[in-house]
TrEMBL record:
Keywords: Oxidoreductase. Gene3D superfamilies: Aldehyde Dehydrogenase, Chain A, domain 1, Aldehyde Dehydrogenase, Chain A, domain 2. Transmembrane segments: none annotated. This is Succinate-semialdehyde dehydrogenase/glutarate-semialdehyde dehydrogenase. Its EC number is 1.2.1.16, 1.2.1.20, 1.2.1.79.
Length: 475
């Protein structure tokens, strides 16, 4: 496959000539080397996106829609190869990678359908003096920065709406997983995306490259998915040129189980909310709050299910949990678990890093976790479930909201009124009631508090790439 930069429809080496290695998380071995984009390449990509902008914005919505629809078809036809590539560079189990390809392709189909649903508004001014006409226009050149945990889906969730709206883009993928992004570039070109409309720029110096693009006044939008820490830095940089921003940041999801819940459903939901993607998801359940009457049984049953999972290389068909993406991630997970154990928690299953090559961590369930343990404050991003008990609805809501994050929450109860009441009281952009999975291309995904600004997916996802222009008309 191509491993150079993709700029203005061509594969080009980095202007410095440098390259960087991509590692297999199952072994730590090098699997490929990729062109390492620098600041000059970033400006060349902005140049290409700016030059392609007017033509793409003027392309009919139907034609833009059909390009996205072809991208969906191609992705679906090549799902098996793409899943293998994702699994190779990210480490996730093939079943997770296949799920990601389906989810990622769906953003192309959804936004192919949204592309032709452009709408504005017309009203009479309250004074009666004139009409108020509102038209929606593409924001312009967009810089898209994505993380390694869903290398395909986080890219399509941005490229789909941007292209549907008539914007041109530069995608800067995570340096741990650039191969999937490069495969997407080739696929989009084959689907008929004109030269310069989508540019892909892998880089090991992400900070410098993204800053250079944000300083270029032709860039009008930054859509970022990644950690809250980097999001804060980029928000400050975007302020310089007052660049429009969408921020999908970290999460610290509470998973609340009331004593009246269907425990079978709660365990199934917990396995999905915790173990999808091996726990490396911003939506991953990070804190389990279980009402005291059922906490013992919940912990025992969850630990049983977690201990039965098959851990191994992601590309092995039998694997249910692959390695984590890199050494830093596994060291962080290990540190958080050790901290919890030192603070008095017990590991019902798992709890220590195995010896040997690869970035593996075993599925782990912790009970008796101290209220001030860092594992309850920070994103774990691994297969670890800390359980805390509570009594009553007020305490559940207080514990759930005791975090700077507000991406998603899960609530299990048989009482629908309580489920809805608690959903409204929890400070989160999304809530799953009796469901461990909320992500859906047709729904607005995003967080409140320090989990982000803006929404991706649904109709809202398209609006992030459009500006409203108001025209006052006399007629
Ligand atoms: P990250 O370290 O914040 O990196 C995300 C992206 O930003 C990568 O492409 C990275 O490039 C780049 N980057 C890093 N430092 C930068 C800087 N100073 N300036 C510009 N770009 C920079 O996050 P990650 O570790 O890849 O991903 C995990 C995080 O993403 C978690 O916090 C997770 O919750 C969050 N996430 C959120 C959502 C959501 O929708 N809310 C979805 C998925 C993941 P390099 O790879 O080269 O460092």
């Amino acid at each position: 496959m191509e491993t150079d930069l993709f700029i203005a429809g061509k594969w080009v080496p980095a202007s410095s000539g440098s390259r960087f290695d991509v590692l297999d998380p199952a072994t730590g071995d090098t699997i490929a080397s990729v062109a390492d984009g620098g600041e000059a390449d970033a400006i060349a990509a902005v140049e290409a996106a700016a030059a392609a902008g007017p033509g793409w914005a003027a392309t009919s919505p139907r034609a833009r829609s059909e390009v996205l629809r072809r991208a969906f078809t191609l992705m679906t036809e090549r799902a098996a190869d793409l899943a293998k590539l994702i699994s190779l560079e990210n480490g996730k189990a093939l079943t997770d990678a296949k799920g990601e390809v389906t989810y990622a392709a769906e953003f192309f189909r959804w936004f192919a359908e949204e592309a032709v649903r452009g709408e504005g508004a017309i009203a009479t001014a309250p004074s009666g003096a004139n009409r108020i006409l509102v038209v929606r226009q593409p924001v312009g050149v967009c810089v898209l920065v994505t993380p390694w945990n869903f290398p395909a889906a986080m890219a399509t969730r941005k490229i789909g709406p941007a292209l549907a709206a008539g914007c041109t883009v530069i995608l800067k993928p995570a340096s741990d997983t650039p191969l999937t992004a490069l495969a997407m570039a080739a696929l989009l070109a084959e689907a008929g995306v004109p030269d310069g409309v989508v540019n892909v720029l892998p880089s090991r110096s992400s900070g410098r490259v993204v800053s250079a693009m944000l300083r270029d006044s032709r860039v009008r939008k930054l859509s970022f998915t990644g950690s809250t820490e980097v999001g804060r830095i980029l928000l400050a940089q975007a302020a310089e040129n007052v660049v429009n921003t969408s921020m999908e940041l970290g999460g610290n999801a509470p998973f609340v189980v009331f004593a009246d819940a269907d425990l079978d459903a709660a365990i199934e939901g917990a396995m999905i909310a915790k173990m999808r993607n091996g726990g490396e998801a911003c939506t991953a359940a990070n804190r389990f709050f279980v009402e005291s009457g059922v906490a013992g049984e919940f912990a025992r049953r969850l630990a049983q299910r977690m201990s039965e999972l098959v851990v191994g290389p992601g590309t092995d068909e039998r694997t249910q949990v692959g390695p984590l993406v890199n050494e830093d991630t596994v060291a962080k997970v290990d540190g958080l678990v050790r901290g919890a154990l030192d603070g008095g928690a017990s590991a019902v299953t798992g709890g220590s890093r195995p010896a040997g090559p690869g970035f593996y961590y075993p599925p782990t369930v912790l009970t008796g976790v101290a209220a001030d343990a860092p594992i309850l404050r920070e994103e774990i991003f691994g297969p670890v479930a800390p359980i805390v008990t509570f009594t009553g609805e007020d305490e559940a809501v207080r514990l759930a909201n005791d975090t700077e994050y507000g991406l998603v929450a899960y609530v299990y109860t048989r009482d629908l009124a309580r489920g809805l009441r608690v959903s409204e009281a929890i400070e989160a952009g999304m809530v799953g009631i009796n469901r461990g999975l909320v992500s859906d291309p047709a729904a607005p995904f995003g967080g409140v508090k320090q989990s982000g600004i803006g929404r991706e997916g649904g109709h809202e996802g398209l609006l992030e790439y459009l500006e409203s222009k108001y025209i006052a008309v006399n007629w």
